[in-house]
């Protein structure tokens, strides 16, 4: 069969083989056969070889119409084949390889359909690589070919949203939805764009339609939850986030963060209204959704307060310790732990915590005062004196510190007097010992003198004058020693019989008793709160100025804030008891608002307290 017949039968490889055999025998091929061989190469996807054959024809006959047409067709075929290869890489997730293949496509010969496909896919790859401006260029190029393609319009809208061009993105999403009203991704994109523009109520309306269209998809639930959260509709937001968690197979980290935020806001509200157990559960759930290795210190502290008021004191203390591990500069946690340790008689631990608190905020007078109390209870009187002096440097009129310092300085003077008396008693004891020793020496001297006298008498009787003289000399020396020993003994005895030191006066005894009341063991209650409210103490009960009974419901730390900072609904200052915000008002403002002192207010029954707080806008 001749080559033409083989080509017509679709036997392209055999046709190529037959033409090559003819070339061996004839040594040269006609332009017709070269064109035929080139077309067969194209049919078998050997485009580069086909192009070489067409170039051979055109080299000999540049005006060969068949070769010109075939060459153009081969270039277009090559572009299509390269696009097909790139599409396979794209579908396989090899975006870098696909991008290189797409970039090699010759757009000058590509068909409009091919150009649209390549530009659209390149834009999608750039979006994957977060090269949003490059993606926008490709989507614009694709829309030049097919300006009404909804998918590409959606892609462009998403890219516009990614670079913050929200108004343009919103218009593009609306164009998509005008063509396809239930285009779910376009609806979600519009919701997110409206949220970015703070048009939250509109976002909720669009989200309602999206959820109605696809109730089992998580994205619209998450977007509506964000819009509700921004409108302070916490319960609605939590319901939406629960829906997103239920229907989402791959929840994003961003969703987890926003969901955790909603839980924290709800927990804060529960804590504020005294629903401590529910608040604790909410905080625990929020902490489980966030970064377990890096939780927010403020959330940990609020959780510790919820645990404390739920009766879980040990767990509360552990959460406070976790709080200062996360943020070593978290003042309220250090102060709360210090005062809790102080209340429970763990004075060394109280000192450590309160020292950290005063390091962070040295101007906090009440915390500094309680550090002095901790030193006092730990029997470190000198450190207590120095600490109370520091408090009085900040507030010279701090009554509790004034009384504590006066008591401590007096007690230290009394202790110094006791020490002097003890030293005097020791000197008397030593003198007594020395006097007894002198008496013993005197007795020995008397004995020696008597024996010498007897010897002298014997010597005299025997008329031994020399011996008598010697004996007399010894006797004289012995008598001299006896007299000296007697003198020393008399002096020691006189010292021993000296008038003993007078007993302590009544004032000193009273002072000593007051000091012992301040420093006795762990059974005494520790004052932490009533001094915060400026309560005065009777002069007769010095100990009460330092060791007043703790009010179980009182806040551990007292700080003054303005009315605007404490008004509902917040946000409130960091570290305060939100359910007792009124106690942080300055005393004069509190009396003006409530027509009574803080002490009188807290003597009221709880329902009366709530009623008065409602009257002044503190509930």
Automatic annotation (TrEMBL):
Keywords, sorted A to Z:
Repeat, TPR repeat
Give the transmembrane ranges: none
- Report the residue ranges that make up the HP domain in this protein: 555-619
Concerning SMART domains, the annotation shows: TPR, VHP
Q: Name one GO molecular function term.
A: actin binding
Q: Single Gene Ontology BP term?
A: receptor-mediated virion attachment to host cell
Pfam families, from UniProt? TPR_16 (PF13432), TPR_8 (PF13181), VHP (PF02209)
Record's InterPro entries?
Answer: TPR-like_helical_dom_sf (IPR011990), TPR_rpt (IPR019734), Villin_headpiece (IPR003128), Villin_headpiece_dom_sf (IPR036886), Ycf3 (IPR050498)
Region of interest called Disordered, as start-end residue ranges on this chain? 490-510
Entry-linked SUPFAM superfamilies: TPR-like (SSF48452), VHP, Villin headpiece domain (SSF47050)
User: Is NADP set as a keyword in this record?
Assistant: no
Repeat positions for TPR: 31-64, 116-149, 331-364, 365-398
Q: What is this protein called?
A: HP domain-containing protein
Q: Which organism is it from?
A: Triparma retinervis
């Amino acid at each position: 069969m001749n080559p033409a017949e083989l080509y017509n039968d679709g036997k392209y490889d055999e046709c190529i083989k037959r033409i090559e055999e003819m070339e061996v025998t004839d040594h040269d091929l006609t332009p017709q056969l070269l064109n035929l061989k080139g077309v067969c190469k194209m049919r078998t996807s050997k485009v580069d070889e086909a192009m070489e054959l067409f170039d051979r024809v055109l080299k000999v006959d540049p005006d060969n119409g068949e070769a010109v047409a075939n060459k153009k067709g081969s270039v277009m075929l090559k572009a299509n084949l390269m696009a097909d290869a790139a599409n396979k890489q794209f579908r396989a997730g090899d975006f870098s390889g696909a991008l290189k293949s797409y970039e090699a496509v010759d757009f000058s010969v590509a068909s409009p359909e091919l150009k649209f496909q390549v530009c659209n896919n390149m834009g999608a790859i750039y979006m994957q690589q977060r090269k949003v401006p490059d993606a926008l260029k490709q989507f614009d190029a694709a829309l030049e070919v097919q300006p009404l393609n909804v998918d590409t319009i959606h892609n462009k809208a998403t890219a516009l949203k990614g670079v913050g061009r929200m108004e343009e993105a919103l218009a593009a999403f609306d164009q998509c939805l005008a063509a396809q009203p239930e285009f779910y991704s376009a609806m979600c994109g519009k919701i997110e764009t409206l949220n970015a523009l703070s048009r939250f109520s509109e976002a909720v309306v669009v989200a309602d339609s999206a959820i109605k269209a696809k109730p089992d998809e998580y994205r619209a639930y998450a977007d509506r939850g964000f819009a509700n959260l921004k409108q302070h509709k916490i319960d609605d937001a939590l319901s939406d986030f629960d829906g997103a968690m239920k229907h989402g197979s791959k929840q994003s980290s961003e969703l987890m963060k926003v969901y955790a935020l909603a839980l924290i806001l709800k927990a804060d509200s529960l804590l504020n209204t005294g629903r401590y157990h529910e608040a604790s559960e909410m905080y625990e759930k929020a902490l489980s959704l966030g970064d377990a290795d890096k939780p927010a210190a403020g959330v940990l502290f609020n959780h510790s307060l919820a645990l404390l008021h739920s009766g879980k004191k040990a767990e509360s203390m552990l959460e406070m310790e976790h709080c200062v591990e996360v943020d070593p500069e978290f003042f309220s946690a250090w102060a709360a732990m210090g005062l809790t340790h102080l209340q429970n008689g763990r004075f060394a631990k109280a000192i450590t915590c309160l020292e950290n608190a005063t390091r962070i905020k040295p101007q906090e007078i009440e915390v500094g005062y309680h550090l002095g109390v901790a030193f006092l209870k730990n029997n470190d009187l000198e450190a207590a004196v120095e600490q109370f002096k520091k408090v009085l440097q900040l507030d010279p009129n701090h009554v509790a510190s004034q009384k504590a310092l006066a008591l401590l300085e007096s007690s230290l003077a009394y202790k110094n007097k006791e020490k002097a008396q003890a030293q005097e008693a020791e000197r008397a004891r030593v003198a007594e010992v020395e006097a007894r020793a002198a008496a013993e020496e005197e007795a020995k001297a008397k004995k020696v003198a008597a024996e010498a006298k007897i010897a002298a008498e014997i010597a005299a009787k025997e008329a031994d004058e020399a011996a008598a003289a010697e004996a007399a000399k010894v006797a004289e020396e012995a008598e001299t020693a006896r007299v000296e020993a007697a003198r020393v003994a008399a002096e020691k005895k006189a010292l021993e019989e000296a008038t003993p030191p007078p007993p302590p006066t009544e004032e000193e005894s009273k002072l000593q008793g007051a000091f012992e009341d301040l420093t006795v063991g762990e059974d005494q209650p520790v004052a932490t709160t009533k001094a915060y409210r400026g309560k005065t103490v009777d002069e007769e009960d010095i100990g009460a100025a330092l060791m007043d009974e703790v009010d179980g419901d009182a806040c551990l730390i007292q700080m003054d804030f303005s009315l605007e900072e404490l008004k509902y609904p917040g946000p409130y200052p960091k570290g305060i008891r939100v359910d007792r915000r009124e106690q942080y008002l300055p005393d004069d403002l509190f009396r003006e608002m409530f027509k009574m002192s803080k002490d009188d207010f807290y003597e009221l029954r709880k329902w009366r307290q709530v009623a008065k707080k409602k009257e002044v806008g503190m509930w």
